[in-house]
Hints:
- By secondary structure, this protein is mainly alpha-helical.
- It has helices spanning 2-15, 20-39, 50-62, 67-86, 113-120, 128-143, 147-151, 180-192, 194-197, 217-230, 241-252, 257-264, 281-290, and strands at residues 158-159, 164-169, 172-177.
- The chain folds into two domains: 2-86, Tyrosine recombinase, N-terminal domain (DNA polymerase, domain 1); 113-290, Intergrase catalytic core (hpI Integrase, Chain A).
- The chain is built from 13 helices and three strands, in the order H-H-H-H-H-H-H-E-E-E-H-H-H-H-H-H.
Amino acid sequence: xxxxxxxxxxxxxxxxxxxxxxxxxxxxxxxxxxxxxxxxxxxxxxxxxxxxxxxxxxxxxxxxxxxxxxxxxxxxxxxxxxxxxxxxxxxxxxxxxxxxxxxxxxxxxxxxxxxxxxxxxxxxxxxxxxxxxxxxxxxxxxxxxxxxxxxxxxxxxxxxxxxxxxxxxxxxxxxxxxxxxxxxxxxxxxxxxxxxxxxxxxxxxxxxxxxxxxxxxxxxxxxxxxxxxxxxxxxxxxxxxxxxxxxxxxxxxxxxxxxxxxxxxxxxxxxxxxxxxxxxxxxxxxxxxxxxxx
Length: 294
């Protein structure tokens, strides 16, 4: 059944609707399922049925797999059997109407607006590191981007005149508005501190570490945890804390959930496309009206 797996993966790549990581995840899931079938002596995909899939899911459960993992495996199987049927194999979809196990989601860590204000004020503007850290925290809270997107920014991704940054995830990009506090902090960092951290005029990285290279995600996490401790915040602070706080604070102030989803980049993957000007005038007004530091 290796040919079926190869064809399935090829269909995902050709569709260009899923990221490379997602495709690899699907491939691993189906490869694991096909190994299960081989061990059961099943060499023809048409001989699988609802009982086969249920037995497989039960095995995963007995192995102690997390509910989230089992749910993902079932989603992969649904996609796989959809491909099998589309390729001309006459059989019933054994995943039809199967329910995934309930996944308990831990509530994201969220700071209050007061805690956020304290955290953002912790970097002291006495050296380049302080200017850099203040700018990073303000940009994170102003836009809700991921830390991986933040540290991937280059200097050309910043438009201080219009108050935008453009962050990229593979071939996808989104342009996000910043509030006045973030624009001011970013301008201060670029004009007063970044040049002292740059080792060459060819360096395009926006946020640099002390060695003049790109700051790592782990490096940022250490910085964030240190400021959280200095601020006396008892809550666990992770790289996603400001992202979650950004979303919650906007919605608490009446922002439309669709607007917040667009800011976070939570759109249907099939509808995602490269774009540069995502914010129309209505969204600009919504942002300025509802973001605490706009």
